[in-house]
Write a structure and sequence with these properties.
Strands 1-2-3-4-5-7-6 form a 7-stranded mixed β-sheet, with helices on both faces. It has a single domain, classed as Gcn5-related N-acetyltransferase (GNAT) (Aminopeptidase, 3-Layer(aba) Sandwich), CATH 3.40.630.30. A hairpin with a 2-residue loop joins strand 2 and strand 3. The protein is built from 5 helices and 7 strands. The protein is an alpha+beta fold. Helix content is 30%, strand content 36%. The longest helix has 15 residues. Bound molecules: coenzyme A (COA). The site of coenzyme A (COA) has 20 residues, from strand 4, helix 4 and helix 5.
Length: 165
Amino acid sequence: MNLWPPELKQLLTPEIRVQLLTMTEADLEAVLAIEQTAYSHPWTLGNFKDALKAGNVAHRLVAEEQLVGYFVAMQVIDEVHLLNITVAPAYQRQGWARCLLQFLCFWSQTHGASCLWLEVRESNAPALNLYKSFGFQQVGLRKDYYPAGRTTRESAVVMSMPLKA
Ligand SMILES: CC(C)(COP(=O)(O)OP(=O)(O)OC[C@H]1O[C@@H](n2cnc3c(N)ncnc32)[C@H](O)[C@@H]1OP(=O)(O)O)[C@@H](O)C(=O)NCCC(=O)NCCS
């Protein structure tokens, strides 16, 4: 099922067929191919399977039948925690991550959430810029949260954004 909310449909160009679809286990091979090109420390197949089994919200963005990107998020009562958002390198810097975030806001609001949370590597400038420009604010720092090199670790910037009632 194509899940675009009416507000977002207006942002899309009519010439390109864009779909927002739920992610299932059948999609994981294509998802993993992007994941492995996009991260130094990608999620494994097991991570995705566990995330889907746990009932998290997971959607993929498909343009002209090509997988462009995806996100996975977890709702806990009135908070939604973004666990993964990725755009395939060939499609980056074209506004797709913003589209995914706008859809996540819409989904979260319609499921009773009042704020979004996420963690991001301190060195991930593209993602930090994306989140700040979207309206997230830093609310904390988790020291040595992520593995970095073979023996080093990297801090996570914790960010949140309130959602309109
Ligand atoms: C971070 C990521 C999701 C952004 O996806 P994207 O589709 O390229 O982002 P958008 O085109 O929607 O960009 C929105 C804004 O984000 C910021 N941004 C995105 N890529 C950027 C880059 N390479 N450098 C600096 N800022 C960047 C900009 O502010 C941009 O707005 P602008 O283009 O008007 O300047 C993508 O780079 C990615 O998948 N990276 C690898 C996975 C990852 O790090 N995910 C986040 C984990 S927390």
